[in-house]
Amino acid sequence: MKKQSFLNSIFRLLRFILIVFVGYIVYQALFSEILTKRIHIFAYIFFWLFSSYIILPFVNKLLTGHYLPNYFIGRSRTGDGLLGDPINLAFIGDENELKQLFLDSGWTIAEPLTLRSSIHMVAASVFARSYPSAPVSSLFLFNKKQDLAFEKEIENNPRRRHHVRFWKTPEKWYLPGGRKADWLGAATYDKKVGFSIFTGQFTHKINSDIDQERDFVLASIKDSAHNIEVEMVEHFTTSYHGRNGGGDRIFTDGSLPFIQVTKSK
Q1: How much is the average pLDDT of 158-175?
Q2: How far apart are CA 213 and CA 219, in angstroms?
Q3: pTM surpassing 0.85?
Q4: Does residue 129 register a pLDDT over 80?
Q5: Which of 40, 131, 166, 234 would disulfide-bridge 158, Cβ 3.0–4.6 Å?
Q6: Which helix (H) or strand (E) holds 151?
Q7: Whole-number Å distance between alpha carbons of 48 and 196
Q8: DSSP assigned state of 208
């Protein structure tokens, strides 16, 4: 354990030195009178990529590790520690039941986020080409990224889609109040693509009314061939306004539906 902590400290130090070094190079490139305007453009792009994908995520993770609690508060988290999308669905059942319910309700399982799927996603978004199984970004709950994700593409364009992430809850774990769920989900609607106000990264922008998306998911699975039981627990969390990890405004009434497949009709 001590050896691992020492290695982590060395890694953080080396990363900090690299950030300072590259930052110095970028500074020199931006303000050197020798460089031409064309080189300046590339320097600006490099500076944006460096700050958005290295500097700011590093700072966010460093800070959020100190002031955000590392236990369930009804919110997922981004890879750099910012509060992500709210948890607005709970499911009781096994993985096969969850998958079958959503597939039979017209949803598609999202592909894993890889370099190849990311490039495909960017190309599809730029050229407005259909990609119904496009990957979703990784959000974290219980210190792990989502186990499953489902989506519904709008008008054959991956820039707009309904999507929901699910995390398997730990064994013998209970929600506040003693309730039990096998899966927790975060459903949101991607309305366009844009830039995160917290990091400047290219990302999807979501609709602020996450309760509307929660209700859309419930309506879609109720129309399936499955007989489901939904218990809506009102005021499970306090209703609030806030922002997600990309800086998009969100609001919710705090109600949490518990979904369970009972038997086929």
Answers
A1: 94
A2: 10
A3: no
A4: yes
A5: 131
A6: strand 148-154
A7: 12
A8: S
